[in-house]
Amino acid sequence: MRYAIRKTIFYVFTAWAAITINFFLPRMLKGDPVSAYINQHQGQISPEAVESLKTLFGLDEDKTLIQQYFDYWVLLFKGDLGESFSKGLAPVTEVIGNALPWTIGLVGIATIISFAVGTLGGAYIGWKRGSKADAIVPVTTFLSAVPYFWMGLIIVSVFSNTLGWFPASHAYDKGAVPSLTFDFISQVIAHGFLPIVTIVLSSLGGWILGMRNQMVTVLDEDYITVAEAKGLRPKRVMLAYAARNAVLPQLQSFAMSLGFIVGGTLVMELVFSYPGVGKLLLDATNSKDYPLMQGLFLIITLTVLIANILADVAYAILDPRTRQSEE
């Protein structure tokens, strides 16, 4: 219970600090969203409309910064993240909601695949340390060292331009209407295949190397020797004893990866012109759309916190020593 209370207090404080920084940071930048909106429309806005816009964006000059801060919290509890002026004053929640499924579906699937394959592969390579399987490590490490954009361009050149097997850009065919039909789903899969392959190849080496090194360390522990002396099957020793303990540090990294899924992979989305959150954040930054930037940063921050909470819970369940060390 004390472990749970300490973790709860820590994450509540972290969430408050992140939201507070998210409120004050845009207001410390040069300019404001109202001025950017006026410049975008070449000043053709009446003074009354300017005052309305300041109220809309929470920049009412009649209120102090502290009052604006409390108003921001009230809006947050109502689920109101403001309006995006670069998207025609559409609600920020709606704009983010349209881009979020694409990023979660694409980067999420790629992250889970690379983690699963890398962890299982690393466990096997570590178990067979010194064998020919070790040759996989430098190959995947080399692929991880190749920049995202370069890897993506190579894959597009080979599988799209040369072979013509997969489309090179966008999330679905031009002119297609999103729907839950077999034709549209097949388009999404075809368009998402090359970006997923790019992410998996670029991140697989880290998972394999990390798990392989952890396995080598764990195999020198006394409980592994005892398990082998009992005559247990090698497969059981590898999975139930060695891999179970070696995977614990991987879980923390996996949780961080899940958290950053919402942030998307900006370079990958630019290479493949994919309509994800990363590209949306870049567009919001270029247009100085502070409400949209603020909403995106908030969603990304809270997602990372939630992912870390889930990692702590999984870590505590798999390794009771974690709870005991903090009691």
Automatic annotation (TrEMBL):
It is a multi-pass membrane protein. SUPFAM superfamilies: MetI-like. Residues 100-311 form the ABC transmembrane type-1 domain. PROSITE patterns: ABC_TM1. Its main location: membrane. One of its GO terms (biological process) is transmembrane transport. The keyword Transport applies. The keyword Ribonucleoprotein does not apply. Pfam families: BPD_transp_1. GO terms for cellular component: plasma membrane. It is found in: Cell membrane; Membrane. The chain crosses the membrane at residues 9-25, 102-127, 148-168, 188-209, 254-275, 295-318. InterPro entries: MetI-like, MetI-like_sf. Gene3D superfamilies: MetI-like (1.10.3720.10). Keywords: Membrane, Transmembrane, Transmembrane helix, Transport. Belongs to the binding-protein-dependent transport system permease family. This is Peptide ABC transporter permease. It comes from Bifidobacterium hapali.
